[in-house]
Every structure is written in C-alpha cells, then in structure tokens.
Amino acid sequence: MLESVGALTGSPWIYVVVALSVLLDVFLPVLPSGVLVITAATAAAAGSTTVAGAASAAGAAEQVPQVPSLLALILCAASASVLGDLVAYRLAWRGGARLDRAIARSRRLTSAQERLGTALSRGGILVIIARFAPAGRSVVSLGAGAAHRDVKEFLPWSALAGVAWAGYSVGLGYFGGQWLGATWVATGISVLALFMAGALAAYLMRRPVTEAAAAAPATTTTP
Fold first, then answer.
1. Are 24 and 9 in contact (CB under 8 A)?
2. Which residues, at least 6 apart from 14, have a Cβ–Cβ distance to it below 8 Å?
C-alpha cells in the first residue's frame, strides 16, 4: 500500500482516494481508511524532507516534486467523516419500523443508543470515543438517526470527532515518517498506535450502562 499511495502523493487524486475511503467506511467498516490516511501522511512527511533537500541542492530554482499538504489531508479526512456520519444518520432516521426492529434485536446497537442519549445530553464525548473504535462510528451514527436525536446535538460532536480522528491519524503518519522515513516499519508502528487507540475506545464503549444513563430522556426533534 505504501508504494501505491506514494505514487499518488504528487497528485490531487490522493485527496479523492482518502475522502472516498473515509466517507464509505461508515457503511463498510472493513475499509482501511485509517491505514490509508496514515500511509499518505507518512509518504508526505518523508517526501517533504526529500523535496526540501532537492530544493536546497538546486538552489530552489528548479521544479521539485510536490507532496500532499498535511492540513489538506486533515480537512479532507475530517470533512468526509462528518459527511458519512450525516448520510448514515439520515438513512437511519428514515429507516422506519424495519430498522427499529433490527436495532432492537442488536444488543450492541440498543446499548449504544442508551449511552448516546445520555452522552449527547451531557456533552457528547461518546461520539468522539466511538470515532476511534472499530465500527463505532457506524453504531453511533445509525443509533443517533434511529433514535431521532436532534441533529443540532449530534452534528457538532460528529465534526469534533472527525477532526480529532483525522488529526490523530495524520499526526501518527507524519511523525512516523519524520523519524523513520517512508518505510513499512514507520507505517506499521503508526498503524499499531491507531489500533491501540481503537481498542481503548472499544473498551470504553462496552462499559455497562448505568441505570441513570438508561433512564435519561431522549430528545426527538426533526433535523
């Protein structure tokens, strides 16, 4: 993957590939969107060092290869994350009785709905935690829509979660690339750190719901 993404780092297509991967993984959590973001950032970090050296050697007079902008990668990944969340939210909102029955049969979705209701009323930190957990983004976005949570409660936390996840992923790739270069070792260590954050987030999401949380009132405002 590192070589394939490296071939795209000098082209705007890297942003398209990242955006599509992040957008679609709310429906297909098996997509390696986090790995892709890290790999692009690693290639960008290593490429920026190479470009700087080439520009210095040439007196900055000749054109040198371009590398992705780290800020653009963060904005691209975060925006795609929020958009995917909203699409899942709206689909679940309009899902009707069939989706409600499917959620009722799923202990994970039912539990997530209960925690989500309390979290949104108290600040919405669960939305941020879920963004790092495997499939947690899907559970929370679908749960918020199916429970008809107010979009004004959900959207700001979805945006904050997207920025936090994108910044963390790009940061891992960037610092890994700066320290170890564009190697499989750098990418592997960064991906391992991402998976560790995901494991911690999954553990926090699985914590039992207290009676107070389960009894928290829900808001049902049309988005």
1. no
2. 5, 8, 40, 68, 73
Instruction: Kindly provide the b/e burial profile for residues 129-153, where b requires at least 16 CB atoms within 10 angstroms of the residue's own CB.
Output: bbbbbbbbbbbbbbbbbbbebebeb
Residue 105, both tokens: 């049969």
Alpha-carbon distances of 173 from 76, 187, 188, 197, rounded to whole Å? 15, 7, 10, 14
The two three-digit tokens of residue 35, written as one number: 């790995």
Label residue 99 by pLDDT band (50, 70, 90): low
Instruction: Supply φ then ψ for residue 112, to 5 degrees.
Output: -65, -40
Query: What is the CA angle 130-134-135, rounded to 5?
Result: 75
pLDDT tens-digit readout, 33-66: 898 898 888 877 776 544 334 334 444 434 444 5
Q: How confident is the model at residue 186 (pLDDT cuts 50, 70, 90)?
A: confident
- CA–CA distance, 206 with 121 (Å, rounded to integer): 19
Please choose, from the candidates 223, 120, 59, the residue with its C-alpha nearest in 3D space to the C-alpha of residue 112. Answer: 120
Burial of 98 (0-12, 13-18, 19+ CB in 10 A): exposed
Q: Round to whole Å and give the CA distance between 17 and 176.
A: 21
